[in-house]
Amino acid sequence: MAVLEIVTYPHPILLSEAQAVNRITRRVRRLARDMLETMYAAPGVGLAAPQVRVRQRVIVVDVVEEPIVLINPEITATDGQQAGLEGCLSLPDLVGEVRRAQWVTVKGLDRRGKPITVEGEGLLARALQHEVDHLNGILFVARVKDPTLIWKVSELKAAAQKEVVHI
């Protein structure tokens, strides 16, 4: 396994659509393992193949008991709405308030090529939607309705530290 380089905006691969995986090979399974290792090392809770310079429809997410690997994921159902702060490993100093579905169903293939359906709500739903967006060339900042709701992480940390010092 290997930790891969995560590309950052404005790398053009982040704004292009990924291609479907036609066959699950050893190379695809290795990519999924390397993506998990890369996501944990970053650290993050999700990663899409384009973020590691691979234009294929592969995502990994880990916000529940065990990591989820989805190949050719497709969101097939959504319900409800949630708003919350999102960040991205490819936009490392930004967070923004994004509205997403509260609940999703995603279908795809697992690492062995078997069909899999994942249902999730809350953070899992948010992470799945965020990563599928990456496969479609959409960054979370494009989902922020009001540009005043995008902040630099470094400024938020500095503000939080000042508040702690003043208390």
Describe this structure in words.
By secondary structure, this protein is an alpha+beta fold. It has a single domain, classed as Peptide Deformylase. It has 3 helices and 8 strands; from the N terminus they run H-E-E-E-E-E-E-E-H-E-H. Strands 1-2-3-6-7 form a 5-stranded antiparallel β-sheet. It has a 3-stranded antiparallel β-sheet with strand order 4-5-8.
Task: Please sum up the structure shown.
This protein is of the alpha+beta class and 167 residues long. The protein has a single domain, classed as Alpha-Beta Complex (Peptide Deformylase). 26% of the residues lie in helices and 32% in strands.
Write the layout of secondary structure elements.
Blueprint: H1 26-41, E1 46-48, E2 58-61, E3 68-79, E4 82-88, E5 91-100, E6 103-109, E7 115-121, H2 123-135, E8 150-152, H3 153-166
Antiparallel strand pairs: 1-2, 2-3, 3-6, 4-5, 5-8, 6-7
Query: How many β strands by DSSP?
Result: 8
Biggest beta sheet summary: 5 strands, antiparallel
CATH architecture: Alpha-Beta Complex
Determine the strand fraction and express it as a percent band: 25-35%
Q: Determine the N-to-C terminus distance.
A: 45 Å
